Every structure is written in C-alpha cells, then in structure tokens.
C-alpha cells in the first residue's frame, strides 16, 4: 500500500467528537483550499456512520465556502428520516464557525427488481496506456508547470487518460468529452463503505475540467477561476475502488460563468457502477496574467 493511500485511509477515519459530531483533517500538500472530493468523502463517512443498517445510494452536495487545509473540519449530521426502506441524513461541514459545505444523502438496501444500464464506450484497456511515470516521461516537458507538479506528486488515486494528449494541448473545436481510467493506488480494506467514500473522493477529479475542453482551456489556465459549486452522485452497483474503473465524462452546457458536466463510472467488465453530475464556476478572470496560450 502506498503512503498516499495510507494517508487517505487515515483522513477518512473521522474522529467521533460527540453523537452526530465528527472531526476530519486535510492532508498538508500545499493546496490553498481543501480538495472538494475530500470534503464529499468525509461528509459521506460521517453520515454513513449514523446509518449502520444500509449503504448510501445517492448524495447531493453544495460547496459554500473554500475550506482551509490548516484547520480541522467538523461534520454535524442530522438524522432526517429512518424508515423501513430508506434512511436520510443531512451533513454540514463547519470551519471557523461557518458552514462551508452541506450534503444530503440517502441510504437503501438493494432489492430484487427491474434492471438495465447503458454500456461503456469501446476504449483501450488501462494496461495499454502509459502509467503516470511513463506519462510524465513522454509528456512532462510539454506540460504547464502546475499540471506537471500534479502528476509528479505521490497521490492516492491513479489516473490513466484514454487520450493523454488532451492534457497537453487543446483546440477550440475539441468536443467536451474525457475518458479516464481511475483506481486507488493500493489495495483497500474490504469495508464497502470505505470503497464508496473513496469513489466519492475521486468523483470530483477532472469533472469540472471537462467543461473547459471546448474552450481550449483547463482548470490550470491563468485566465480561469474554477471552483466546484454542487455535486451529485448515485451509486448503482457494488464495486471495489482499488480496481480499474472507466470514468466517462461530458459537458453538455456552459454559460454565464458556469459549466455543467456529467460522468459515468464503469467497471472493467462493463457494469455501470455510478453516475455523477456537477456544476462549477468557470469564470474568466479580467487580469489573467502571463500563461501558456493553450492553457
């Protein structure tokens, strides 16, 4: 197990302060704000710990304020409903006396019933794509510095883009679509709740960036101010977050400083594991400063 995965497991193991109150921390990796996927995952862990009888099947969240990585986050869970089939929880993430994030989650034990699902697109398997070391070796010199630093850092999640060139250069006629293989970089414990939290963690990765592809930019572009605003996740089928999943993303709309993106996560055998939707700020800065033309 890598140090990054060990650290991820540690930060997902929230401290219980009191009934319905939990405390989490952020990894100290130099970010100015707490990574949104971390807050989603920790809030889901807090809510799940109050529903031992059923797993989460959906969540809907709003990012209200940027999180401070230097300060612990307190998660306050409200028990909204415990029915025969469904339980519902609301969770507020609090820092410096203010709510920075709020999540509503529903819990349900799967039962026999009607079933269908879309099939995944035909893409190369992850083993045929460059791993992150080979990716840096092949493309590192062409990368903007923030992108290169991101891929060089040891991380708990491995990503293998189906089209690696899109991380290097983008044209204004490119379709706003991305396909990325993702998984945890080490074997996780067998607890399904931990796998759901890990998927929630990486469901925020690259999603907002998809809305910028058609505009020849990325979230690292100097004239873009980007931030996740809301996030929805539906969990359809059992899975392991330490096995490869294909994350298929598209962005059907961007307007007025907002970009909307959708995602679908598929297992190696083509099962639809989860669906994701997110809207985020993609504001053009008035004084972007110097930067690479295609970023």
UniProtKB/TrEMBL annotation:
Every Acyl-CoA thioesterase 2 C-terminal domain range: 151-281
GO molecular function terms attached to this record: fatty acyl-CoA hydrolase activity
Hydrolase keyword on record: yes
Listed SUPFAM superfamilies: Thioesterase/thiol ester dehydrase-isomerase (SSF54637)
EC category: hydrolase
Domain Acyl-CoA thioesterase-like N-terminal HotDog: 30-107
Catalytic activity: a fatty acyl-CoA + H2O = a fatty acid + CoA + H(+)
Keywords assigned by UniProt, alphabetized: Hydrolase, Lipid metabolism
Subunit organization: Homotetramer.
NCBIfam families: tesB
Protein name: Acyl-CoA thioesterase 2
Protein's organism: Rhodoblastus acidophilus
